[in-house]
Each structure stands twice: as structure tokens, then as C-alpha cells.
Design brief:
single chain, about 230 residues, mainly alpha, globular
């Protein structure tokens, strides 16, 4: 495959993935129903775990391809196509079928929030890949005169892939915990918040506020005395 055609394939793969991410965002912002329209839906948490595991592995492949020379658009396009075909459809299905009736409102909220974070992080990664591909394509067209210094862009790629990995790890942990585990974790978080609030109330000294009020009351008198 020629350099021009391989970059064309990469551009197509990037646009396809961007389109799916945009569709996922639209689904997240508009989907308000609690019950799924899918008959006999699969286990949402199992599908979530499998889809995220595949996505994390594919993002790892991407990072290796992007961080090492030479820049190989055809190989990168293949990984992006796999993400579009194998990962996002499953995650979009999870977003719909993880209903509060079956998985609890707490779990649904947790999964949906994490999937929103994932879409955002993945979109940043795709944008960085597109920018890097444009730069590499320009270099390829210039031939030997082109600059091959992609080190700065590779650092950005490493940063955004790390963000995707982090979100993936959080989602995998949620899927492993299950409904009871997530509920217990949330209960512990709420308990900690309540304890902090109680401690702040116990440490609060009403006399301090009284002194502050007295200062406010005396302030106009001080200003009037200064004018005299």
C-alpha cells in the first residue's frame, strides 16, 4: 500500500471513530428512559467488562504504534477500526441496558458517568492521533526534507492514552464489584461525608461568629469617628 493510500485509510478510520463517539455522546445526552427497548438483553456488567478489556488492549496497541518509529498509518488504522467495530457498539448497548430496575439506580449512574468520561478521554486521544497523522503525512510528502521529530507529539499521545487507561481501570473495577460492591462503596463514601460534616459542626464555635457580628456592628461607628 502506498504512503498516500495508507494515510487515506487512516483518515477514514479516524472519521468513522469520531462519528461513533459523537453518536455515543448524542445517546448519552438524549437517552432518558429507564427501561431498555432491547429484548432479552445480555448481562450489562459482563458486556461492560469484556468491551472495556478489549478497548484497553487496543489502546495499548495504539500507544506502542504511536510511540515507536516509524509511523505506520495502516497498522494504526487497523486498531482504530477494531475499536469502532468491537468496543463502542458494546459500550453503547451497556449504556442502554444498564437500567435501574435490574442493576439499581446507583449502578446505572456510576456506569453512565464513567462511560461519559471514557468518551471524552477517547475523543481527546483520537484528536491527538489525527494531529499526529497530519504531521506525519506532511513529512511523508516532503520526502527526505521532511522533519521526523515527533517526540513532542508522542509525549502528548502518552498523556492522553494514560487518561483512557485510567478511565478503563475505573470501569473494570466497577464491573468486578457488581451491584452490591458499588452500593457498599457509595455507602462508605456517604458515611465519610457525614462524619466530616459532624466533625465540622462539633468544631464550630458559635462565639467566633458572635465576635464577628460585633465587629460588623461596631464598624459604622468606627468610620463615623474617623470622619470627626
Amino acid at each position: 500500500m502506498s504512503s498516500f493510500s495508507s494515510f487515506t485509510v487512516l483518515s477514514t478510520s479516524l472519521e468513522t471513530l469520531k462519528g461513533l463517539l459523537n453518536s455515543f455522546s448524542d445517546q448519552q445526552s438524549s437517552y432518558a428512559r429507564n427501561k431498555t427497548s432491547i429484548s432479552n438483553p445480555p448481562n450489562a456488567l459482563a458486556l461492560l467488562h469484556d468491551s472495556i478489556s478489549i478497548l484497553r488492549a487496543q489502546v495499548t496497541k495504539l500507544s506502542l504504534l504511536l510511540l515507536n518509529k516509524p509511523f505506520t498509518p495502516s497498522a494504526i488504522a487497523s486498531v482504530l477500526t477494531s475499536i469502532s467495530a468491537e468496543c463502542l457498539p458494546g459500550l453503547m448497548t451497556v449504556y442502554e441496558i444498564c437500567s435501574p430496575d435490574t442493576y439499581s439506580k446507583v449502578m446505572q449512574t456510576e456506569v453512565r458517568n464513567q462511560l461519559r468520561d471514557l468518551v471524552s478521554a477517547t475523543r481527546h486521544l483520537v484528536d491527538q492521533i489525527a494531529s499526529m497523522a497530519d504531521f506525519a503525512n506532511m513529512n511523508a510528502q516532503q520526502g527526505p526534507k521532511g522533519s521526523e521529530d515527533l517526540s513532542g507529539r508522542r509525549e502528548e499521545i502518552l498523556q492522553v492514552t494514560g487518561q483512557v487507561w485510567s478511565v478503563c481501570d475505573r470501569i473494570l473495577a466497577t464491573a468486578r464489584l457488581g451491584i452490591v460492591g458499588v452500593a457498599m462503596d457509595k455507602a462508605k463514601e456517604w458515611e465519610a461525608l457525614i462524619k466530616d460534616a459532624i466533625e465540622e459542626l462539633e468544631e464550630w464555635d458559635p462565639d467566633t461568629d458572635d465576635d464577628f457580628d460585633m465587629d460588623l456592628d461596631s464598624e459604622p461607628e468606627d468610620k463615623s469617628s474617623e470622619k470627626r
